[in-house]
C-alpha cells in the first residue's frame, strides 16, 4: 500500500509541475467540449431555481411590479418614438461638431457555465480572450479574466480578495475596492478629507487597465476613525453574480 | 462501486458549478473510511477530475486528497475513527483547511456537520460488505 501511495503521489506532483509550466495544456483539450457542454446545460438549466426563494419572499412586491411594468411598457413605446427622433438629431449634431465617436470596446458575449469562487465562461483563447480582460454585464463591472484555455475562461470576481479595482465615486472620491469573498466588497484607501456618504455610487476610475465608468456598487456602511490615514467603507456591488447567465468580455480595439 | 462513482461525480459537479464548498473532499474522506487502502486510486482520479473540471492546476487536489488519505490510513488508531465524534472533528478540521487553502474562506459548519452525518450513515448502508471487513469503519 505504501508503494501504491508514493507512486500515486509522485504522479500527482509530476502532473502539478507539468501543468504549472503549461506543458500538458493540450491534454485538457479533448475533454473541454464535454465539460463545457455539461456545465453549461447544468448551470443554465438550474439557474431558474435560484430565483424561486426571491419570488416567494417578494410576492407582493412582484404583483405591484407587474402593474408598474404594464404602465411602463406604454411609456416605453412613447419614449422609443422620441428616442428615434433624438438619435437622428444626435447624429446630425455630431457631424456638425466633428466630435469623435466615443472610445469603444469590442464586446465578446459569453455564456456563464459555473459560479464557484470564480465565474467560468464558455469562451476562451480561440475567441480572443486573454488574461486581464475586464468582464461586464451591461455597464456593471463583474471581474477580470484570470485564466484561459481554448474554450473556457475563469473570471476573478469583484468579490474576490485577489482583485483590487481603483474606483471613483459620483462625488469624485477616489479609492480602491477589494473583495472579501462575501456579498460585500471593501472600499479602502479613501483619504479622510474626501467626501464619502452612504448611498454614494462608485464606478471604475479607468486606472490599472480597467475601463472607466463601469458601475461597481453603492456605499452601505462607512467605517471612519480620525486617527487613521484612510477611511474604509462597505460597498454592495450591483452585480448579482448568482443570477447572471450571460456576460461580455471587453477587448480594447 | 457505481454508487461511489456517482457520488463523486455529483460532488465534483456541485463543487465546480453551483456552490463553493469542498463536497468532493467530504466524499473522499468517506471513501477512505469505507474502502481503506483500496481507496487510493479513487482518491487520485477524483482529484484529477476535479482539477480538470474546475480549471485548476492539475494534480493539486490529488496531492491534498492523497495526503489526507495517508494521514487517515496511517493514524487511524490514534484518531480512533470508530468514534463518530472523532470522525466529525477530523472532517470539520480537514474541510476548513482545504477551504482556506483552495477557496480562501472557512466552510459552512452546519453544512459540514449535516453532510458528514448523512454520509457516515448512508455509505455503510450502501456498502455493508465492504464496511464490515475493513479496519476503518464507523
Automatic annotation (TrEMBL), chain A:
Q: Which Gene3D superfamilies match?
A: Rod shape-determining protein MreC, domain 1, Rod shape-determining protein MreC, domain 2
Q: Which GO terms describe its biological process?
A: regulation of cell shape
The keyword Secreted is assigned to this record: no
Similarity comment: family membership: Belongs to the MreC family.
This protein's GO CC annotations: plasma membrane
Which organism is this entry from?
Candidatus Gottesmanbacteria bacterium RIFCSPHIGHO2_02_FULL_39_14
Q: Which UniProt keywords apply?
A: Cell shape, Coiled coil
According to UniProt, the name of this protein is: Cell shape-determining protein MreC
The record's annotation in InterPro entries points to: Cell/Rod_1 (IPR042177), Cell/Rod_MreC_2 (IPR042175), MreC (IPR007221), MreC_beta-barrel_core (IPR055342)
Q: Which residues form a coiled coil?
A: 62-96
Lineage per the UniProt record: Bacteria, Candidatus Gottesmaniibacteriota
Q: Where is the Rod shape-determining protein MreC beta-barrel core domain?
A: 115-250
UniProtKB/TrEMBL annotation, chain B:
Name recorded for this polypeptide: Uncharacterized protein
Q: Where are the transmembrane segments?
A: 7-35, 41-72, 84-103, 109-127
Q: Which UniProt keywords apply?
A: Membrane, Transmembrane, Transmembrane helix
Amino acid at each position: 500500500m505504501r508503494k501504491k501511495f508514493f507512486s500515486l503521489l509522485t504522479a500527482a506532483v509530476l502532473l502539478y509541475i507539468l501543468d504549472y509550466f503549461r506543458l500538458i495544456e493540450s491534454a485538457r483539450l479533448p475533454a473541454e467540449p464535454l465539460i463545457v457542454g455539461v456545465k453549461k446545460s447544468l448551470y443554465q438549466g438550474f439557474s431558474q431555481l435560484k430565483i424561486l426563494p426571491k419570488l416567494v419572499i417578494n410576492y407582493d412586491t412582484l404583483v405591484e411590479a407587474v402593474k408598474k411594468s404594464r404602465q411602463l411598457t406604454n411609456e416605453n413605446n412613447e419614449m422609443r418614438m422620441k428616442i428615434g427622433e433624438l438619435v437622428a438629431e444626435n447624429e446630425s449634431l455630431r457631424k456638425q461638431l466633428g466630435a469623435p465617436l466615443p472610445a469603444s470596446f469590442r464586446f465578446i458575449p459569453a455564456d456563464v457555465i459555473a459560479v464557484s469562487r470564480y465565474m467560468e465562461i464558455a469562451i476562451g483563447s480561440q475567441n480572443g480572450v486573454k488574461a486581464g480582460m475586464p468582464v461586464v454585464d451591461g455597464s456593471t463591472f463583474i471581474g477580470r479574466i484570470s485564466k484561459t484555455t481554448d474554450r473556457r475562461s475563469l473570471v476573478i470576481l469583484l468579490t474576490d480578495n485577489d482583485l483590487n479595482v481603483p474606483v471613483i465615486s459620483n462625488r469624485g472620491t477616489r479609492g480602491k475596492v477589494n473583495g472579501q469573498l462575501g456579498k460585500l466588497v471593501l472600499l479602502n484607501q479613501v483619504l479622510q478629507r474626501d467626501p464619502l456618504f452612504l448611498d454614494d455610487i462608485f464606478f471604475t476610475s479607468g486606472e490599472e487597465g480597467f475601463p472607466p465608468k463601469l458601475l461597481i456598487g453603492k456605499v452601505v456602511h462607512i467605517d471612519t476613525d480620525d486617527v487613521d490615514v484612510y477611511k474604509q467603507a462597505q460597498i454592495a456591488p450591483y452585480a448579482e453574480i448568482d443570477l447572471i447567465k450571460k456576460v461580455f468580455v471587453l477587448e480594447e480595439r | 462501486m457505481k454508487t461511489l462513482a456517482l457520488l463523486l461525480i455529483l460532488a465534483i459537479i456541485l463543487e465546480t458549478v453551483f456552490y463553493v464548498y469542498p463536497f468532493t473532499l467530504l466524499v473522499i474522506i468517506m471513501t477512505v473510511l469505507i474502502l481503506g487502502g483500496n481507496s487510493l486510486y479513487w482518491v487520485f482520479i477524483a482529484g484529477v477530475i476535479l482539477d480538470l473540471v474546475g480549471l485548476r492546476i492539475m494534480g493539486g487536489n490529488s496531492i491534498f486528497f492523497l495526503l489526507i488519505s495517508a494521514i487517515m490510513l496511517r493514524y487511524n488508531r490514534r484518531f480512533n475513527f470508530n468514534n463518530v465524534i472523532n470522525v466529525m472533528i477530523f472532517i470539520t478540521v480537514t474541510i476548513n483547511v482545504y477551504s482556506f487553502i483552495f477557496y480562501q474562506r472557512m466552510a459552512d459548519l452546519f453544512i459540514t456537520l449535516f453532510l458528514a452525518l448523512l454520509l457516515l450513515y448512508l455509505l455503510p448502508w450502501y456498502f455493508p460488505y465492504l464496511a464490515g471487513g475493513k479496519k476503518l469503519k464507523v
